[in-house]
Amino acid sequence: MKTPSSGPRVQPRPLETPATPAPVRNEVKPQAPVVRGDARDVSLFDTGAARKPTVALTTPVAPQGTNVAPGTYPSVADVKAIASIQDPVARNYAITQGYADLSNGLGQMLGKENANWSTFATWASKQAGVSIRNEDMPKFFTDALKGAGDMAGPLKKVDDVLRKVGLPALPLADIAAAGSEALNNVSKSIADGNQFVFNEVGQEFARFIETFQGDTSYDAAKTQKYLDGFGKDKPLLKEAFGHYTKAMFEKDPNKKAELMLLANDQIGLHEQTQLQQHVEKALNAPVKDTFRSILKQSIESGINALPFPANLAGKAALKTGLVDAALNPLVDATASVFRRLATEHMMKLAVPGGALKLGNDLPPPPGMESTLFPPHLRAIENPELRALLGKLDSSSDSLKGTAAKDWSKLDQRMNYIIDLFRTRQSDPHLFDAPFGKTGTTYPLPATQQRAG
Q1: Is 385 a residue whose pLDDT tops 80?
Q2: pLDDT at 197
Q3: What is the pLDDT of residues 193-228, one digit of tens each?
Q4: Residue 17 placed within a domain
Q5: Do the domain assignments include residue 369?
Q6: 46 falls within a domain
Q7: Residue 308's domain spans which residues?
Q8: Is 132 in contact with 88 (CB distance < 8 Å)?
Q9: Structural domain tally of the chain?
Q10: SS3 readout for the chain
Q11: Which residue has the higher pLDDT, 137 or 114?
Q12: What pLDDT, on a 0 to 100 scale, did the predictor assign at position 401?
């Protein structure tokens, strides 16, 4: 597998400031976020029709040594408090906003010409919230069942059995209820993963800001002392945040962009490895068992409600396995519809201009159809980054084959994620406020911390 090497790079600009500044190629200034409707729940990425093509920034937009105002980002204690919120919906809102505020804090220190990992995590967490809240899924599922051709035969067989024992046809509402229960199991796994990663990685972002804000030059001794604070079980996080410290004072925009991408990829690999059990649990939830249990319980309740001796035929059908035999094909068909819909519903990620379907090849950002990557990341020279991309990227310098057909596989997730990071690292819209507001004030009120 060859390592990335192709594509023109932007040459570092001289440190002297020219008397007449030359126009900067490919520069787009971040636009003020637009608030629409219920600002709390609007993704500013869903405005592709109104936006100009995404074009990468090419020069630093923030000086080093910036102080981050206290209360504008969650401290280590705030991260722990947010992660302890019991209500998963309230917790996800707080986590998503917390990621955004950590992203902005780091952006003030390192510059916003390159997104950091927390910038991407903001939108991944917002997308997770859609699944955590089960938005519209029950109705989608019921509608899908009505239009699923492979449901007709199995459903007719069950209805024939129910008719013979004196019961009405099985209502779709009962099947939808089973679908809601199955979705709750999936949503809980997603919520648990969202909580776990924020509690771990969010604390490290807060610690980085608290340690290095205001610094104007690289301090090797201070950096080493800071890095010694990472546990031995977190080597990738230690390396990643070490690269952030170097990126903070790097003057060469090419080298800085590569350090940022290397750090982002290393944190991504760490958190996806940690998330493996949650992803497998979400995607391999016992859907069939859930459907079988609820549907059989519905039929049993109907039979038991029949007066004697009318209920004898129904009880016999249960005892002889006639009901189970009729239910099995229906359970298989229903579970298949559910998995197709759940995958379509959950396997998405919001990005500027719309939503990406993770099961499809990653499309290039608008305006980069021919170059694929922003200027400073078109040719990779950092040897450590080249080695990591060579290990994780199945198609060097290409977006072909990035589709994650099985999101439960770590290698497929990382193959998609590293190209997502590389193609969109310089998109200024990643720093948009996720809920149409510019942040919150920390620490959170005690009543909000105890929500749920």
Answers
A1: yes
A2: 96
A3: 999 999 999 999 999 999 999 999 999 999 999 999
A4: no
A5: yes
A6: yes
A7: 39-449
A8: yes
A9: 1
A10: CCCCCCCCCCCCCCCCCCCCCCCCCCCCCCCCCCCCCCHHHCCCCCCHHHCCCCCCCCCCCCCCCCCCCCCCCCCHHHHHHHHCCCCHHHHHHHHHHHHHHHHHHHHHHHCCCCCCHHHHHHHHHHHHHHHHCCCCHHHHHHHHHHHCHHHHHHHHHHHHHHHHCCCCCCCHHHHHHHHHHHHHHHHHHHHHHHHHHHHHHHHHHHHHHHHHCCCCCCCHHHHHHHHCCCCCCCHHHHHHHHHHHHHCCCCCHHHHHHHHHHHHHHHHHHHHHHCHHHHHHHHCCCHHHHHHHHHHHHHHHHHHCCCCCCHHHHHHHHHHCHHHHHHHHHHHHHHHHHHHHHHHHHCEEEECCEEEECCCCCCCCCCCCCCCCCHHHCCCCCHHHHHHHHHHCCCCCCCCCCCCCCCCCHHHHHHHHHHHHHHHCCCHHHHCCCCCCCCCCCCCCHHHHCCC
A11: 114
A12: 94
Would you state the structure tokens that stand for residue 335, as one six-digit string? 């579970």
Tell me what pLDDT residue 158 has. 83
Question: How far separated are the first and last CA of the chain, in Å rounded?
Answer: 50
pTM over 0.85: no
Mean per-residue pLDDT for 386-415?
91
CA 290 to chain centre: 26
**What are 245-279's pLDDT values in tens digits?**
999 999 999 999 999 999 999 999 999 999 888 77
Domain presence at residue 355: yes
Higher pLDDT: 202 or 304? It is 202
What whole-number distance in Å separates Cα of residue 89 and Cα of residue 191? 8
